[in-house]
Amino acid sequence: MKIGISIIAALALILVFSSTAAAKNKKKPAPRGMVESMQSVPCGLKERGVSGLGSIFGSVGIQHVNSNEKLCQQYLFRTDEMEYHIRPRDAKHGALLAVGHEGEYRIKKDRMILRIPDEDKKAREFEVISMQPVNSSVREESSSYRSTERATESRAAEKAADRTEKEVKNRPPE
């Protein structure tokens, strides 16, 4: 009888410890945001010619340099609290992001690791150019990124307002 009680107590302890260990191993959901816009911005010059040896060849009269302005993609990534302006760290092989898609992100120092689950689910590194907090009063009116709960609530409120306006217009005059 005493052996049965000790076995039950041992199983209970194992069950308690395994449930707390499982709770510790659960990952927090990654913070989410939305890719709002993409712009092509100048990020340097691509030079060909004798510009590096200008002092030597300049004295001889050779000054021909082909220079083209190099453009990079810069994205506006908006979360509930912040707006990030980001550029791909690998400019040569940077993939285009779809504007209007939600993404999960992590920030490490001056880098943002962004993953778009709707697309190929590949994590890409971006360089954070600037960060700007979103004002709470402005965010409610002009922010186009909303979580799904807030978006459905606002749509329901707009539909209700449209119905009341139609009822007022269709009411016969008194």
Tell me about this structure.
The protein has about 170 residues and is α+β, with helices and mostly antiparallel strands. The chain has a domain at about 30-135. Helix content is about 35%, strand content about 35%. The protein has helices at about 1-25, 55-60, 135-140, 150-170; strands at about 30-50, 65-80, 80-90, 100-110, 110-115, 125-135. A 6-stranded antiparallel barrel has the order 1-2-3-6-5-4. Strand 4 (about 100-110) and strand 5 form a beta hairpin. It is flat, with a radius of gyration of 29 Å.
The helix fraction, in percent, is 25-40%
Q: How many whole angstroms does the radius of gyration measure?
A: 29 Å
Order of strands across the main sheet: 1-2-3-6-5-4
How far apart lie the N and C ends?
Answer: 88 Å
- What string gives the helices and strands in order? HEHEEEEEHH
Largest sheet: 6 strands, antiparallel, barrel
Amount of beta strand? 35-45%
Structural class estimated from helices and strands: alpha+beta
Assembly type: single chain
Q: What is the residue-mean pLDDT, rounded to a whole number?
A: 75
The number of E-state strands comes to 6
* Global outline: flat
- Count of helical segments? 4
Low-confidence stretches: none
